[in-house]
Fold these 2 entries.
Entry 1:
Amino acid sequence: MTLLHIAILIPFFSVPFIPLLYKFLHRIHTGWFVMLIPLMLLIYFAGYYPIHQPLEPVIQSVPWIPTLKVHFSLYMDSLSLLFALLITGIGTLVVLYSIFYMSKDREKLNFFYAYLMLFMGAMLGSVLSDNLIVLYAFWELTSVSSFLLIAFWFHRKRSRYGAQKAMFITMTGGFSMLLGFIILYVASGTFSIRELIAMSDQVSQHSLFIPAMFFILIGAFTKSAQFPFHIWLPDAMEAPTPVSAYLHSATMVKSGVYLVARLTPIFGGHLEWFWTITIVGLITLFIGSSLAIKQSDLKALLAYSTISQIGLIMSLLGIGSMALNSNYSESSLMFAGAALAGIFHLINHSIFKGCLFMMIGILDHETGTRDIRRLGGLMHLMPISFTLTMIGAFSMAGLPPFSGFISKEMFFTGVLTASRSMDSWVVFIPIIAWIASIFTFVYCMILIFKAFTGPYQPKQLERKPHEAPLGMLISPMILAALVITLFFFPNLIATSLLEPIVKEILPQAFANGEEWHVHISVWHGFNTELLMTIGIVVIGSLLYIYLTKFRNIYDSIPLKFSLNKVYDRGLIEMERIAGLITKFYMTGSTTHYLSYLFVFVIVMVGGSLIFQDAIYLDFSDNSPIELYEYMLGFTMVAAAIYMLFTKSRLISIIAVSVIGYIVSLFFVIFRAPDLALTQLVVETISTALFLLCFYFLPKVNKYVTNVRFRISNAIIAIGVGLTLTVIGLSAQGHHLFEPISDYYKDSYKLAGAKNMVNAILVDFRAFDTMLEIVVLFVAGLGIYTLIKLRHARRKEH
Amino acid sequence: MTFSIYILFAGHHNPGGGFIGGLITASALVLLYIAFDLQSVRDIIPVDFKQLAAAGVIVAVLTGTASFIFDVPFLTQTFTYVELPILGKTELATAVIFDLGVYMTVVGTTMTIITSISEDEK
């Protein structure tokens, strides 16, 4: 257990205390306490920040399930550090903002902050884990906590719908990703990302290498809302705005980008990787930016813009990965520039999008609406908000003097590099990128000018707007200040953070010790990139002026075939088919259920006995059977047969317990006191339970059963009996392996227990026991709930 | 009851253990319920069996998790011998705590099932 492990676990450990703070210190907003956690972690992670030389990667490992090669191992390099800083930094600002946004009297803050901390821990875990299985666990935990946060206002139908949609899509992707991880494990024998990178040549020889790549990419694309999985993100906007600012723009949606960057050393250089990521990224960029213009809800507009911007980052990482392809090794440094642009834009996007989301939250909070058709003319009423929104939106549009300008110019350099150094239809990449950037410019203008200029319509607003309280403005102000600082001093992070990150993403490209230093300059001369920007501003402004006409184009696109419709239709069909299947076998009759189970046993176990040629009867070394053993055996048989013909439940129960007690007698004879004791007590308890239950049941009525039913039951019964007898006898005859019982003979030495059975239960196989008692407990709760619910329902009527 | 507790702690070296101890306790309690009635037994033994079961699961899981603190894999059990004033050389094993969790879960769950079924009206 190291400090790094504790840093990840702190948010989880804080969760139980949040409701207590909420309950006992209700007069103080719970957010003030919660804010200390991300702040503390931010300071801790900032301590790792390399000022003079690149960060030496730190690796810390704690064995978790060593036999399955699952270790809780953490790996901290510049890429992980960047994400950790974003998670804790934006996390601090978001919590600060939420203190003013979430009312402590109306909202259930205890749940809100508990979910938020759960999310933060999960996010830190997924960007710091080196073990793929641990990464997967944290990854899914981010989906779960995001589900809880989206559904925070669960009384709204849209919130529940959005939460379900996000969970469905991201978790399906997660499963697919797990499949990919397992294939990688089969190919390499390790779950460690670093070890996988070291043996990437060997891994890529595996026949399932390309499918594994696609399975993992589906995970990354669903999480990062890439086309065609982007449909969950706009619906996730039902979450409270601080959540949208944090999860759905700055951190969680970027974990797909993180995964792509992290795994580029393994998969990069393969053309499949390059094409998939670049094309998906560009399509997402294009669709997201063009759909954003259509939105009238400002938050939905931001959601689509997030989709498109992450598509942009993805496509840059895709282009960057070509640095690892041996055919293009002479231009590998130019491709590295694309990866650099991607990472730089990722930072910029987190900052300006965080700021913009907070501003939209303020607008919503102060006016009661986010609809641009009702907003307008707020510039004079909310001058600070206007300034901050403008800074964020200009940065997003890629205009100077804001940091988004630099990364957008670098983006153009990246796509031009791709089209210059590669042939075939790569030439389309810059064109798509350029058109999408025009759309980006247009929606940024909508964001600023529709809400803040134009006619002021006080009658359309629910509240009288005024400037937001200072506390709410602090967080976006800090972010806006960062936007400007990064424009004027981009090299603050260039050499110490960006350069090592690119070298980590593309290690093979720099393996021969080539000199490569990052220096970002704001003014890069009159070149194609600058001309493209000028073109964007000119055409974008024209489009904005003729926006009403331009928007009409969208109305002519039929809605019928949209992906959302496909999703909704799929949901309905899935429920219908599931209902049909369930109706087919859930008949409500215990007899049916039991016969399914037994037939399954006969087919599976009996079938494999026959097909595996496993029947083997050998009685040669059996010990002689004593007379009293015969007697006990016959009593059991007699009790069983008697049970078949009795009509009273009571007698049946007693006959069953006779069998059970005789079994325990057998255990006594064969010197297994532990088993005998257990069998005795289990028999007693279950008899008592049966007696209790049967008291309520109607009288046994055997005459309703027809002959066919009886014959089929008899066949099933004989089949099960035969199968199990043959298994028992065959198992006795076979001696294929050394019996494992020898290992347990050392139980006293290994576990300090003289009782071997107990040592097995609590030491050697304690994991089984633990899960068994959990199952037992859940079953008990289930019975309790069923009965109590019945009472409650009866009282209602 | 005394016997069941003896069984629980003897489990490490002699026949017995948490599961069986729990069942014996449960059967003792069932006997009490049969001899008296639900309400009077509840007055004598004011235990919420649901909570007991939950506590048992938590104890068992926590004993497993505690091994993390000592940098050893999940559910690693350990044992040691200490000299106690009256009992002399006594063995302390974390496995016994784990077993206690099992015991509590078994008693709690069994009793929850039995009492809720018996409380159920027709």
Entry 2:
Amino acid sequence: MRSFLTACLATLLCLPAAAMAADKPLTQEDAAWLDRVTFGVDSATVATYRDLGRRRFLQAQLHPHSDGLPQPIAAQIASFDVMKTPTDTLLAQIRDQYRDIKDMPDGDAKQEARKALQKQGNQYAQQAQAAELLRAVYDENQLREQMVWFWLNHFSVFQNKARVRWLVASYAQDTIRPHALGKFRDLVLATLKSPAMLEYLDNAQNARDKVNENYARELMELHTLGVNSGYTQGDVQNLARILTGVGVNFDGQPRKLRPEMRAYYVQEGVFEFNPNRHDFSDKVLLGKPIKGGGFDEVEKAVDLIVSQPACATFISTKLAKYFVSDTPPPSLITAMAKTFRRTDGDIAEVMDTMLTSKEFTASLGKHYKDPTQFLVSTMRLAYDGKPVENPRPLVNWINQLGQAPFGRITPDGWPTADSEWSSSGQVAKRFEIARAIGSGANHLFDLDEAGTRSVGGFPQLTTPTYYAAIEPSLGPKTRNALSQATSQQEWNTFLLSSPEFNYR
Amino acid sequence: MDRRQFLLALAATVPALTLGGKVFAAPANSPRFLLVFLRGGYDANNLLVPYASDFYYESRPTIALAKPTPGDPKSVRALDANWGLTPAVAQSMGPLWDKKQLAFIPFAGTDDLSRSHFETQDNIESGEAGDARSYASGFMGRLSGVLRGVPPIAFTDALPLSFRGTGDVPNISLKGGGKAVFDDRQSKILASMYEGTPLQAAATDGLQLRQQVAQDLQTEMVAASRGAVNARGFAQQGQRMATLMKDRFRLGFVDVGGWDTHVNQGGADGQLANNLDNLSQGLAAFANGLGDAEWNNTVVVVVSEFGRTFRENGNKGTDHGHGTTYWVLGGKVNGGRVLGSQVAVNAANLLQNRDYPVLNNYRDVLGGLMKRMYGLSDGDMGTVFPGAKPRDLQLV
């Protein structure tokens, strides 16, 4: 124990005197603010914040101009099979494999082929999960990455349903990320046209005379208006009819259309609007007539839905619950909803209203981190930008903590209230993950599949960032616990498990 | 071995848990209650099949289950003149029905008509009356609060709303396995950081329970290697729940997902049948794991947020409906009956020309059952299900 304390002291003394002066602690409010606007502090973020100041830092985060990934991580993600293959090609391959399997005679070989295809799909989904976690840890556009997480959760899809596992990587990268800080309407339409969503909520099956109302219901209840906001069972059924024909074309074959239908056909990649499957009759939605007329109806319906005051309030409330508190002040919701309506649902503007409010500042340090926030902030503090060689432990941990991306079976997404993640079982699990990371007993730095060559070790958490942004917030009980650590690994485990580190 | 010796032997082998300062070892005679929540709104019409109804066969051209037919393993098993049981659960649940330890309550559910999974689940778990729901607590939590010596546990990743609100309820998911990670010294230090915080009990309980379950799983693995049944999925969980509820816990909650079958739900085979098979195997494993004596002191109720549309949709599936069917199982259950208020299954009796009406409100039915099981006073009843009118269906 004494030798450990000496080692700590040595770490401190080894810091150059000039750096010490420049790295005097942030104010507790600055540290807490940074911890909320990002997934958690690392030294690069602290340096940028010192450089730009709060206002300019925020503007840069709200309006990122490019990818903020360090080159090794960008290269790692680009090397994933699922990223190397364009979605159309990918689906064509799967379609062919499905067909080949169908044509095989029943027996072991057919079973094996089917299993192999599912296995490939699962690998692709795991790569998509890894890509999301790597971006959350390493992308310097931290606010956008939090928004991507938020919207992936808001427009949640479940990877283990049907072909969704092959589609989630593109869903995150092509559907959600480009619109994460853009207009809400564009985001809704992007998800509406995404094969992942259409497959997950069964709208790919929704056709005239074969109406499936699953997606229509969740589009209003979960994505835009909220339950009990005034729409009726009849609205659900009418929206389902409006959405007939909105689906996917996995065949790659052009549809046979009568001449009068051709003008109505829409295709963008795998997405298609097939007029043969559409109910062209006139409908009424939320009290407004929607004249029968192809995909036009869908755009009109989305415009009508997102312009409802209920939508502005619903989305603002959900954002505030994630970023501010389980019970956000009504004054804040009102201000955010007002911005939402004034700007036609400009997400960056709504975020600006929220993040610069006094209610936001007052809430700092009081929100219990959810598993993703815990895991990502732990990685950011522990490894401080050092690229991992193997992201698989990240995927395993987030699965064990119960909040895997694309892992929520129901379309409501993971809950965000503190109480949902602080039960006894979850708190204990979190301590165990803290140990896996803090002790270095993991495979993050394995250089080969077998794990025989590894450049890993346990992380050194007593960095200048720690002294600037974390140490000042520690209370006496945590300091006392840290003083009982018998090794750096144990000290790390205790720090990452501490209440101060687990609230933000 | 007489009872006293048995209890002493038990005390020697099974240390009581002291979670959050409370001793978690139940008095041997308090009744056990396990609530199983099927999330996603299961299609009760293909579990408890109204085979005498022509309307059933008209409404489900591709997914209906065949009328009872001797020699046809895919036909339903007749329970009485109107109702039949899907073959998917016949093997695991048939013996319980024969022993009159299993009852079904069709037309059951809530007054919530939103047909939203999430709202309806929350409303059921809250257990409060229609217009006064707060979601600050759940009925299992409040039940736990009015009972003494009935330690609660949730077999879930997160603490369900059902168990919120009254004191600390430990939770643990039994899906995985594994060894305990921390020794006693580390556990104490970790817990010490949370002293005086709202998470104090969670930190202490979680560490202790994980140690305990890790030990149980070691025992289970040894037992399994001696040729115990190789269960999978929920069946394995059923066995593990029995291990924990046998000696330590008396009030349990578990949920099972995957019931939202809008597309290709199947009939005698397929996704719904697979789910029901897995579920019923878990329930049977739970009963077996407790052993006859303890099963006699146990009631299991299976609920879901709602049923589904009576007619199949265009994709050989079903959409969100209203009334559903509850299961009640246990050694002393007055089973072998289909219970509660009922109406003929035909088009005229559907709610909104769509689904089963709710004639047996879950608050009244569960309230009546709990009142009988635990001898609750009217005051306690009002705490657990405020404003409900407990209905005694003489389930136990």
